């Protein structure tokens, strides 16, 4: 018998987003539904341009200013956060919701030492005093397996490798014990060996703390390693959702099968890869255009 589902920590319903540039409106998200349970690792998968990053941005409230939410809602921990105030949003950031970004280079401020950047978050969101924040920052860097936290706290971002910078950002993301972390391709910018370590680290921290994770990636190998369920996105539409196991064993959509065949997998390194067939890509583009016509967008 299946266990009853816990109440979702994130519930995205019928999300539509368009971007207006040069008086032209482009549909980016076309009715995205996605729900993540407490403690669940949910993979958001799709090719470049599918809208994965935009979904994450809307949840965090950091979508570009030209972007307009034309329909749909985002609920976090039971609360509708679709259009909350800047102030309510700041309250939520760090404590409730956090981000592990794709590019660890630009996410840290080059002008400040790591110690300041970690302690600032603790002081702002948790109200810690300087001394307590310093102690905690040391512990946090140890938790992400940085061997000499004391030295790293004194360093500037440019003095650290990409992998070390990403560890610092992971420490910051977990620092206020958020309920949900959005990780947007967090290992894409790293070397292969470092990728594995960082992935393992995120998974271990997530599992130990019971943090839910929206893991954005184009890589099914990564999904196989760390996710419980997944959503396949194409042209801003959800094509398939399910458990990782059922989807890998029996994908429901031809596009999912094609993507699986197109992605190298850690668990099956010898597999031959085949690109997504152009005919299928064209069909999906036509479906998206038909959706827009029906919705009166085009
Ligand atoms: N600031 C922006 N202005 C205009 N178009 C954008 C902007 N950001 C993203 N897009 C478009 O939105 C679509 C989805 O982008 P994105 O969410 O970054 O895709 P993914 O993360 O899946 O690669 C793409 O077609 C992209 O060109
Ligand atoms: Mg992206």
Verbal overview:
The protein is α/β, with parallel strands linked by helices and 298 residues long. It has two domains: 8-96 and 178-294, P-loop containing nucleotide triphosphate hydrolases (Rossmann fold, 3-Layer(aba) Sandwich), CATH 3.40.50; 104-175, no CATH class. Helices cover 41% and strands 24% of the residues. It has helices at 52-60, 86-92, 104-107, 114-126, 130-143, 149-154, 162-174, 192-209, 220-226, 244-249, 254-262, 278-294, and strands at residues 8-21, 24-37, 41-45, 67-76, 79-80, 97-100, 180-184, 212-217, 229-234, 237-243. The strands form two sheets. The protein has a six-stranded mixed sheet with strand order 6-7-8-3-9-10, with helices on both faces. A hairpin with a 2-residue loop joins strand 9 and strand 10 (237-243). Helix 4 (114-126) packs across helix 5 (130-143) and helix 7 (162-174) runs parallel beside helix 8 (192-209). The longest helix is centred in the last third of the chain and has 18 residues, at 192-209. The radius of gyration is 20 Å and the shape is globular. The chain starts with 7 loop residues before the first strand and ends with a helix. The mean pLDDT is 93. The structure holds adenosine-5'-diphosphate and magnesium ion. Magnesium ion binds at residues 52-53.
Q: What proportion of the residues form beta strands (DSSP E)?
A: 15-25%
Catalogue the unreliable spans: none
Mean pLDDT: 93
Please give the largest β-sheet.
6 strands, mixed
The level of helicity is 40-55%
Written as H for each helix and E for each strand, in order along the chain, the element string is: EEEHEEHEHHHHHEHEHEEHHH
Termini Cα gap:
46 Å
- Can you tell me the CATH superfamily of the largest domain? P-loop containing nucleotide triphosphate hydrolases
Shape: globular
How many domain units? 2
Content-based structural category: alpha/beta
CATH architecture field of the largest domain: 3-Layer(aba) Sandwich
Helical stretch count? Answer: 12
- The quaternary state of the protein chains shown equals single chain
Number of strands: 10
CATH class of the largest domain: Alpha Beta
Q: Nearest-angstrom radius of gyration?
A: 20 Å
- Which strand order do you get reading across the main beta sheet? 6-7-8-3-9-10
- CATH fold topology of the largest domain: Rossmann fold
The molecules bound to the chains, other than polymers, are: adenosine-5'-diphosphate, magnesium ion
């Amino acid at each position: 018998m299946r266990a009853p589902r816990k109440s979702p920590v994130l519930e995205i319903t019928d999300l539509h987003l368009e971007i207006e540039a040069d008086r032209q409106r482009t549909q980016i998200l076309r009715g995205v539904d996605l729900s993540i349970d407490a403690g669940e690792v949910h993979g958001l998968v799709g090719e470049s341009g599918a809208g994965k990053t935009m979904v994450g941005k809307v949840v965090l409230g950091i979508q570009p200013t030209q972007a307009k939410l034309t329909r749909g809602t985002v609920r976090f921990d039971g609360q509708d956060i679709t259009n909350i105030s800047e102030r309510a949003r700041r309250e939520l950031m760090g404590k409730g919701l956090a981000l592990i970004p794709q590019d660890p280079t630009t996410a840290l401020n080059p002008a400040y030492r790591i110690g300041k950047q970690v302690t600032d978050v603790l002081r702002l969101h948790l109200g810690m005093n300087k001394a307590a924040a310093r102690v905690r920052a040391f512990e946090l860097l140890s938790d992400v397996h940085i061997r000499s936290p004391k030295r790293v706290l004194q360093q500037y971002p440019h003095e650290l490798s990409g992998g070390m910078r990403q560890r610092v950002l992971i420490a910051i993301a977990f620092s206020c014990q958020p309920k949900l972390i959005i990780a947007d391709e967090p290992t894409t910018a790293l070397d292969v060996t470092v990728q594995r370590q960082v992935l393992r680290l995120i998974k271990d921290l997530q599992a130990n703390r019971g943090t839910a994770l929206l893991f954005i990636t184009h890589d099914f190998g990564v999904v196989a390693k760390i996710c419980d369920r997944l959503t396949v996105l194409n042209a801003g539409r959800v094509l398939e959702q399910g458990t990782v196991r059922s989807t890998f064993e029996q994908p429901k959509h031809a596009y999912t099968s094609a993507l699986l065949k197109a992605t190298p997998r850690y668990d099956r390194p010898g597999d031959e890869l085949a690109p997504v067939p152009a005919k299928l890509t064209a069909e999906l583009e036509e479906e998206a255009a038909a959706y827009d016509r029906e919705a009166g967008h085009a």
